[in-house]
Write a structure and sequence with these properties.
Radius of gyration: 33 Å
Order of helices and strands: HHHHHHHEEHHHH
Low-confidence stretches: 152-156
Number of strands: 2
Shape: elongated
Oligomer: single chain
Number of helices: 11
């Protein structure tokens, strides 16, 4: 005995695939009644049964959408009930976890005396992969919650007027924060790597450190601590959302501490290794090397002045 399958049967079967088992019988009856009634209306207008059936099913649309309507499920990965909490948590974790992992991996790799490119690639690669992992797992958790929870108040926090951000022209964005943290992290990696870098100027001769090896005992650790504190300040600034007087004061303290330390090293002729300077015999090249400390001091001074001025200007402007 051959059973003829109609378009309606196939359509209802497709709809029921997305319906919980306990609801399928009731949905099947309701949907078939709706289709049959609509087909009769089309036939009363002069359409033949097959054409009327196809018109009705086409008007009902994609079976997945019909299934979502009957089951009450959202067709989006994360529905509007939980999306605000999802995006807030995702931004917060990415802005905190990724920079920390990037710095930690970079510092750890630098301590193994790898090349500078190996350090940079390891740090940036680890930060990128951690960012993907954070985004994936947070999205997965919220997608499951969205489909399994019927009472959104048990999961999402209650919104309040205090959650509204202040309207300021100098609000600190995520892009600016990540750029600053990346620059500071690369500078930390450079300070960790540079003492291990040596250059041989004579064929078969011993390699000579370019920077003064004595810096590793005091000044380089001091500069790294200041830079790590500056990274922490960047995270605090981002969480605050804008410049404030205390943040500007701390920023000035850290910037000036780094600048004074670096310029003192340069002014007291502690930056370059004396053996390295003695090995430079080519006149023009040696003249250029002699100018490097002065150039570095000027760059540090200009950058520090700009950074301190910008912090106070934005902090004071935010109060008006």
């Amino acid at each position: 005995m051959t059973t003829t399958t109609t378009w309606t049967d196939r359509y209802i079967t497709a709809v029921l695939k997305g319906i919980p088992e306990e609801q399928r019988a009731g949905v099947s009856v309701k949907l078939r009644q709706l289709i049959d009634t609509s087909v009769l209306e089309q036939m009363s207008r002069g359409e033949n049964p097959e054409t009327a059936e196809r018109l009705v099913l086409r008007e009902l649309g994609d079976p997945m959408r019909v299934s979502a309507t009957y089951s009450g499920r959202s067709l989006s990965l994360i529905g509007p009930r939980f999306y605000p909490e999802y995006i807030r948590l995702l931004k917060l974790l990415v802005s905190i976890v990724v920079p920390i992992v990037t710095v930690v991996v970079g510092v750890t790799t630098a301590l193994t005396r790898e090349s500078v490119w190996s350090v940079v690639l390891a740090a940036l690669g680890s930060g990128f992969m951690v960012g993907i992992q954070v985004a994936f797992w947070i999205t997965l958790v919220f997608a499951v919650i969205d489909r399994r929870t019927t009472d959104s108040s048990s999961v999402t926090s209650e919104w309040d007027f205090d959650d509204l951000p202040e309207i300021t022209e100098n609000r600190i964005g995520l892009g600016d924060t990540l750029a600053s943290i990346t620059g500071l992290s690369l500078l930390v990696l450079f300070l960790l790597w540079q003492p291990t870098y040596q250059e041989s100027f004579d064929p078969g001769g011993p390699p000579i450190p370019i920077l003064n090896p004595a810096l590793s005992t005091l000044w380089i650790p001091i500069l790294i601590v200041i830079l790590l504190a500056s990274i922490t300040l960047e995270l605090i600034k981002y969480r605050t959302g804008r410049w404030t007087i205390p943040l500007a004061a701390v920023n000035s303290l850290l910037s000036l501490s780094f600048a004074f330390s670096a310029i003192f090293i340069i002014a007291s002729d502690q930056l370059l290794n004396s053996e390295f300077m003695a090995a430079i015999t080519v006149g023009e090249f040696k003249t250029f090397i002699d100018l490097i400390p002065t150039m570095i001091a000027w760059v540090i001074g200009v950058v520090t002045a700009f950074d301190v001025t910008e912090g106070w200007w934005k902090a004071l402007r935010g109060r008006t």
